[in-house]
Amino acid sequence: MMTELHYSIDLAAHCQALSRMNPQGRDAAFLYREIASRVLDILQFMRMAPEKILYHTVGFDDGAKQLAKRYPDAEITVVSALPLSLSSCEPNSRIQYYCAKNLNLPFEKESFDLLVSNLMLHWQPNPSHYLKTCYLSLRARGLLLFSTLGPDTLHELHDAFSQVDEKPHIHEFIDMHHIGDALLHHQFIEPVMDMEQLTVHYRTLNRLFSDIKAIGAKERNLKLSMSEKFGVPPIKIPEYLVELLRKCTDYRGIKSKTMMSGALHDSCKLAAITDIGMIFVPSKDGRSHCPEEWTDWEHIKCGAEVLLDAIVELAK
Question: What is the pTM of this model?
C-alpha cells in the first residue's frame, strides 16, 4: 500500500545541494518552470475564486506570480525549500514567502482553498503523510493540484546502470495509481490522475549529469565517472536530396518542413557509403519511441508516396 512506502532520502543534504545552485543551476531548473506552467494551466478549467492559496515549491519557478495574476484578490503563501529563491523574489503585498528546509507544511488545519505542490511529492520520505498534511491544510471543497515524477523518469539511466550492478542508483518514483489510492485513503474526493511524458534531448552525457547535479541531485550517494567510449558524428544530408524531398511533398500538396534529427539512425552508418535522406511523419501528440506511439494511416500513406516519388525521380 502507498501508506507503507518510506524512502531513504537525506533531506538535509538535498537542501544543502539546492542552496548551492548557481546561475548554471538556475538554467538547469527549466523542468521545474515548465511543469509548474503546465500544472497551473489546469486552473483555467476550474470555476473557483480562492481566497487563500498555498504554493509549495523547491524554488526557481514563477508559479506564485502566475497564481497572483490569475487570482488578483487572493492571498498567496509560498513555501520554498530553497532559501536562495526567496532572496530573489520580487516584493508583493499579497504574497508571503517562507522557507521550510524539511519540506513540510507547518500550517493550521483548513487554512487554504487551493494548494499547489510543484515537484515536491517525490522528495518526501513519507509521501502518504505529505498527502495527509495537504488534506488537513485545505478547507472544505478545497482543491489540491500537484505534480511529481513517475516510475519512467530517468529510465535510460536505470537501464544503463542495471547492466553494471544491481544497486539502486536511481531514485524510486511512485506509480500514479498508488498515489491515487493514497489520495482516496486520505479522504480526497474524486482524484483525477494524468500523465505527460516529457523528453529532453542531451548531446552529451556530461551535460545531462551536470544538469542533474545542478538541480540538487548530487548528494544522493551517486558517484559517477564518465568517459566517452563511443560517438557518431552528425551527418549532413546532401542539399539535392533535401530539395528533392521538398519538391515531392509540394507536388502532392503535403505541408512539410526541414528539420534536424537528434536521434541515432541507421542512416548515419549508411552515409559512409552513399548519400542518404530522411522522411518523418507525425506521431499523435508528438509521442514517439514509446508504447503510446501512434501514426495515422493517412500520414503513413503520405510518407510512403513521397518516398516512392523520390525513388522514381532518382531512378530516371
Answer: 0.62
CA dihedral 144, 148, 152, 155 (to 10 degrees): 180
User: Which residues are paired to 53 by β-bridges?
Assistant: 76, 114
Shared domain for 193 and 282, answered yes or no, is no
Regarding whether 97 and 129 lie in a shared domain, the answer is: yes
How many domains, in total, are found in the chain?
2
Distance CA 124, CA 43 (A): 25
Segments forming the whole domain that contains residue 310: 239-315
Residues 217-268 have pLDDT tens digits of: 543 444 444 455 556 677 888 999 999 999 999 999 998 888 877 666 677 7
Which CATH number goes with the domain that contains 280?
A: 1.10.150
Cα–Cα dist 262/234, whole Å? 9
Cell triple for residue 104?
Answer: 513540510
Q: Are 243 and 249 in contact (CB under 8 A)?
A: no
